[in-house]
Request: fold
Amino acid sequence: MPRKPRQRSPRPGIEYRFKIDAWTPDTLPMSRLSEYMAELAQLLGEKTAVHFRRLLPGSCVLVHRIDSEASPKVRERVKSVRLGVAPSDAARAYKTINRLLRDDNAVGVLRAPKERGVVIRFPGREEKQETFASVKQFGSIDGIITWVGGSDQTAHITLETEGQQVSRIYTTRAIAKDLGRKLFEPVRLNGRGKWSRDSEGTWALIDFKVESFEGLDDAPLSSVVNQLRAIPTDWTDESYTELDSLRRGPKGGGRGKNGGH
Reply:
């Protein structure tokens, strides 16, 4: 009987351990664990060479091994994250992990047992949150009216916009009465709003007072394009030159005069 060739054991790579101080293996939900693991894989890169090994007892410690062939690239990528010069996808993963930790009231560290010190520290709950003053300004919100009501002199409105239900909208009874006729129809609400921004640059609506509104056409794009094509228009060479000037700015004015668009 011919002898089976011996399988070569994979060469040892480097091992990283990610510790979350607020969780233990018994308390960390599986869904949350999957979020951390997905972002860690993104941060480390070389996804086919990164392998989850086990969870250590005590504080939750995720142990993962990187194949030796990919170790130099992973080391450089991790170093770039620590120095703040990482590629955009790695930097985004770092921010997401830190946000998860902050939401979990936790602090995290990434260590390499064979290397001295912390490789990356995630401040999480200890990170000082930058606060921004709210902004008030006139603006508009597009969406579909899903509810109009209220028992006092101020009527309240719920608007579906970008897949979310926005309810911090109010107006007078007179405008609300007219808006009620637009229930489940697309509209543009005009008025004065108050917005706030968090430390990650995300804007959130605090409240919005509707001063006027207009109905929006919900015709499909193909129908609108056909209507535009049906408009009788005499196009000349001067027309195209004018359009190009509007788009790029006058010739000789330099790139970027009108934004370079």
Confidence is low (pLDDT under 50) at residues 251-261.
